[in-house]
Specification:
single chain, about 325 residues, alpha+beta, 7-stranded mixed β-barrel, about 35% helix
């Protein structure tokens, strides 16, 4: 794994240098947008809607649109000046029971690894959290965005769970909440009985992504049936290609010399490797034909005097 962030956990007067790693990954099958007819990749250009010109990434800034339609341009320099008290610091605010934190607040999980010089304070915080049966409520800034988070222990490692802010949780506003729905005791008892019959321990290994597996089988079937579109690979001409062509020509010349043939003069390396590959079989075929001709010529020469003698003998008999 590759660390995406480096900082320190501030635990009272204790500072624990740590590295941050993404704890989860999506294993969904990813696709590209392609042209249906030939499978060519679809590319997008960043074009300014005012002048129609393509804009390089270095000239792109962030813009906040006002209700009037006007745009406020925010540059990286503006963002760099914003105060972030928790920048490069996981600041422990308090310790709270885990059951008091609604899972709806959790956003993304990260592993925290201590630096080699901070293993002991890291283990101290980890063991204290485990014994207290609590999570640490912290504040941290990742990629210029400050967020709430919790620290908990999983498999002997501190896990940072980023959270959304309270005002980012939407209120459920649905009409049925205002309806007076009557549930009979028998119906509730039956539902509770069903829940009890289906209850068990959570084992994540029992579950898998059936859709992804089916989609992967579709892709494998198309590959086996050769329902694939080969894309042309654009390669830049480098010195290694010239060296390869020179080595091929030297090999051909050595083979001809071994057969007693004269080597052809070297040709300039202007042609592509594909053309050279197409010409090589033709040259070999010509060489094989040239090698067979001398062997057959003496046999034909020997047959010619015999035919002339037979004609003379026949003319004498007729006379």
């Amino acid at each position: 794994m590759r660390a995406i962030w480096r900082g320190a956990v501030s635990f009272g007067l204790v500072s624990i240098p740590v590295k941050l790693y993404t704890a989860t990954e999506e294993r969904d099958v990813s696709f590209h947008q392609v042209h249906r007819q030939d499978g060519g990749r679809i590319r997008y250009k960043r074009v300014c809607q005012l002048d129609g010109e393509e804009v390089p990434y270095s000239d792109i800034a962030k813009g906040f649109e006002l209700p009037s339609g006007e745009m406020v341009v925010i540059t990286d320099e503006d963002l760099a000046e914003l105060p972030l008290a928790s920048s490069r610091m996981v600041d422990v605010l308090s310790f709270v029971p885990l059951e008091q934190v609604d899972p709806i607040y959790f956003a993304k999980s990260y592993y925290l690894e201590p630096d080699k010089t901070a293993t002991k304070p890291y283990v101290l915080l980890r063991d204290a959290l485990a014994r207290a049966d609590s999570v640490a409520l912290v504040k941290v800034a990742i990629r210029t965005r400050e967020t709430l988070a919790t620290l908990r222990v999983r498999d002997g490692v501190l896990v940072l769970e980023t959270m959304v802010w309270p005002d980012e949780v939407r209120e459920p506003d649905f009409g049925f909440l205002d309806e007076d729905v009557q549930i009979r005791p028998q119906e509730l008892a039956m539902a509770e009985s069903l829940i009890e019959s289906m209850s068990g321990d959570f084992d994540p290994t029992q579950y898998h992504d059936e859709y992804r597996e089916a989609l992967q089988k579709v892709i494998e079937a198309k590959v086996e049936g050769r329902e694939v579109v080969e894309q042309p690979v654009e390669q830049e001409e480098t010195g290694s290609v010239v060296d390869l062509m020179a080595a091929l020509r030297a090999s051909v010349a050595a083979a001809k010399k071994g057969r007693g043939e004269e080597a052809e003069p070297a040709r300039p390396a202007a042609g592509s490797a594909t053309k050279a590959a197409k010409k090589a079989p033709a040259k070999k075929a010509a060489a094989k034909t040239a090698a067979k001709v001398p062997a057959k010529a003496p046999a034909k020469a020997a047959k010619a005097p015999a035919k002339k003698a037979a004609k003379k003998a026949a003319s004498r008999k007729s006379a």
